Amino acid sequence: MSEYNQDGITRDVLDAFAKTPDPRLRELMTALVKHLHAFAREVDLKPEEWLAGLNFLNATGQISTDKRPEFILLSDTLGLSMMVVALAQARASQAKGATEATEATVEGPFYWAGAPDVELGSDIANGATGEPTFYMGRVTDCDGQPLAGALLDVWSGDGHGKYDVQLSSEPSMQARGRFRTDAQGRYWFWSIRPNYYPIPDDGPVGDMMRATERSIYRPGHLHLQVSAPGHVTLTTQLFVGGSPYIDADAVFGKRDSLVVDFETHPPGKAIDGREMRVPYHSASFDVRLAPATA
Amino acid sequence: MSEYNQDGITRDVLDAFAKTPDPRLRELMTALVKHLHAFAREVDLKPEEWLAGLNFLNATGQISTDKRPEFILLSDTLGLSMMVVALAQARASQAKGATEATEATVEGPFYWAGAPDVELGSDIANGATGEPTFYMGRVTDCDGQPLAGALLDVWSGDGHGKYDVQLSSEPSMQARGRFRTDAQGRYWFWSIRPNYYPIPDDGPVGDMMRATERSIYRPGHLHLQVSAPGHVTLTTQLFVGGSPYIDADAVFGKRDSLVVDFETHPPGKAIDGREMRVPYHSASFDVRLAPATA
């Protein structure tokens, strides 16, 4: 019964978890043990590799703070975060018509609740450096019906790839804002064109990226969280078409359907009538929300 | 190419690791990503479960110190440590005859290098509380030929399940010693009968054990590391037959072949001639070492 050949070990561990009262926790631990043991067997894991792995996890925990969640970064760079997002969207899309909804992607670590509510057409850059960009689009349901009063919560880094919270220990909000769509479901605002940037690479995850010769960069992107009554709240990103690293996102958040062409314009009167004395870009991005299930 | 359906995510992550220069690291990361993603898909991992898992790993790193390696405890309680031991022994046993070698098990966290070299027949208890026990056996190769001068490094907790290092911040060694076998490969010494004890349960691993209603105890056992020139060094444990929790070792280290019957004797002249004024036990355990490969 307790013979410890390799299969026997796995069986004994599964037996030990079999009495877990909560059925979901039991399911999670059972699957975790199966895959963990299968991994070790498949690679014939050596003691020194096992220890290196545990030391890596330990260092990941030790370097972490509230402001630096290194395990989330590890999850991001292993594609696990994106997998969890995709699974959640797959569940939501079981609702009728939801397969036509805009694709979700990872939220990232830079969301800051409480961005100012501003008028449509406002410039939310608030001093963020970068090339001016006019953003516009419509929020609809999956049948293309406009959603009036939908809430857009928008945030991005600046034209140098830095977020406000990275620029100062007491930052003021830049390139962040909340809008409500008009009666036709439309939104429009000004900000800057976000640039690509590196993920934090001075910790264990950075060591992993170097040892595996992976790129540490994320392509330029603008974050959106879009919500409307009766619909599934969408957390996604709009990616800057042609950005460096557009096909090598270090956290696997980029989806082809979210890449937007940024059109460049000479100085002059912009689409909303604003007089621009410098060249600027425009980007159009429509959002389709899935119906909430009852 | 970068379509982010769930299979697409896994493929993209594997592609990202494909350029890893070191072939073994590439193999490890590839298998890790496959199993990690397969786990998430299999259980349809929810965002709040994902976050709870990352918070658990983070807490495991944060509580860890040199003296409290919580990730090793986690590995132990998930049976991964024992799996790595079993895989190592399977590799060693590919040498001719090695399948007859004594089974290995986990080293545990309480090894203390530099235990005193003592004469055969010594009492190594050195003040450790517990019932006196006479240990004896032979060290041979896999053909049963005695190995003279084999080194045994022995350590255990006491009769209350405590190791010396747990009893004081500046402990002196108790229930630890190193011997060399005599010309017939024999060893014998006195110590105490080790008792069962709980693993540290005031951290994340303890939380896991409670949530899954698992036993946190290890059955009584004595650690041995046995080495001889030309042979694979063996790290194993001798388990006290009939100990509480003998069939529920929290770290899955117990093997049936390592369980030893502790015979109880009335006061009187012991096997080695020592006059015992209290009841005592005796335990006999032979060790067979695998030949080292060239």
Automatic annotation (TrEMBL), chains A, B:
Family, per entry: Belongs to the intradiol ring-cleavage dioxygenase family.
Pfam families documented for this protein: Dioxygenase_C, Dioxygenase_N
Keywords of this entry: Dioxygenase, Iron, Metal-binding, Oxidoreductase
PANTHER family, A to Z: DIOXYGENASE, PUTATIVE (AFU_ORTHOLOGUE AFUA_2G02910)-RELATED, INTRADIOL RING-CLEAVAGE DIOXYGENASES DOMAIN-CONTAINING PROTEIN-RELATED
Gene Ontology MF annotations: dioxygenase activity
Domain of life (superkingdom): Bacteria
Protein name from the UniProt record: Dioxygenase
UniProt xrefs under SUPFAM superfamilies: Aromatic compound dioxygenase
Transmembrane segments: none
Domain Catechol dioxygenase N-terminal residues, every copy: 22-95
Domain Intradiol ring-cleavage dioxygenases: 107-265
Cofactor(s) named in the record: Fe(3+)
